C-alpha cells in the first residue's frame, strides 16, 4: 500500500530511533519511469543539460573512479553518483510529493521555504560499488545543519548488494564535529560496535526510509549480481547558505522549482 501520511506514533518512533521506514512511496509505474529515466541519463540518452549535473563514474570497465565534477563522463551504467537531479523534471516531481512536504512541515515548520542540498542518484553496480564508511550527514561549510534525508530504493536493497546500515539512536549529538563531512573515526565506530550492532535497512524497490541527518550510517560494496540503485534527497531550511555564499534550489514554498519549466 502506498504511504500517504505519517502517524503520531510513527513520528515518535522516528524521533526516538533516528529513522523511519516509510513503506512504498512509488507506484509501479512511477518506479519504472524513474528507473528508466536514470538509465537514460547514465547512457547519455536524456534530453537535458548535462553540465548542470554532477556526475561521478565508478571504477571499472578500464576506468579509475572519476572525480565528482559536472558533465557527462561516457555512456555506461557504471556511475557511482549523479547529483543536482532537482533539475530533471521527473525526479523533481517525485521530490515534491505531498508526503515529503508533510515531513518538511513537521521538521522545519509550515511557514518557511525548503530547499535541497543534494538530490542524488546513488549506485552500487553489480559485483562492484564503493564502501561508504560510517558517517553523519553534515557539512561544516553550511550556515546551519540540514536535518532530514529521504532515501528511496530503485532496486531492492539487500545485505548482499550493499544496503544502508545505521546505528539507531545516534542522532542526538555530533560525534566528530570537526570533520567537514561528518565521517567518524575508527575508534568511534569501534565504540559503537561495543554497545550495539548496526541495523541493515533492507528495502523493496519503491520503498523509502526517512533518516535524521545525524543518524550514523554507511554501507558495504555490492557482492551480488544485481545493482543497488537509489535516490537520496536532503531537505533543508530554504535560507541555508554555504560559506561561499551559495543558495540552493527551493523545492517547497515561494520560488520553488516547477517541473514544467525545466528543460
TrEMBL record:
UniProt keyword annotations, A-Z: Dioxygenase, Oxidoreductase
InterPro entries: Phytyl_CoA_dOase-like
Pfam families: PhyH (PF05721)
GO terms for MF: dioxygenase activity
KW Oxidoreductase (keyword) present: yes
Presence of the UniProt keyword Oxidoreductase in the record: yes
Superkingdom field: Bacteria
Coiled coil regions, renumbered to chain: none
Protein's UniProt name: Phytanoyl-CoA dioxygenase family protein
Species for this entry: Paenibacillus agricola
High-level lineage: Bacteria, Bacillati, Bacillota, Bacilli, Bacillales
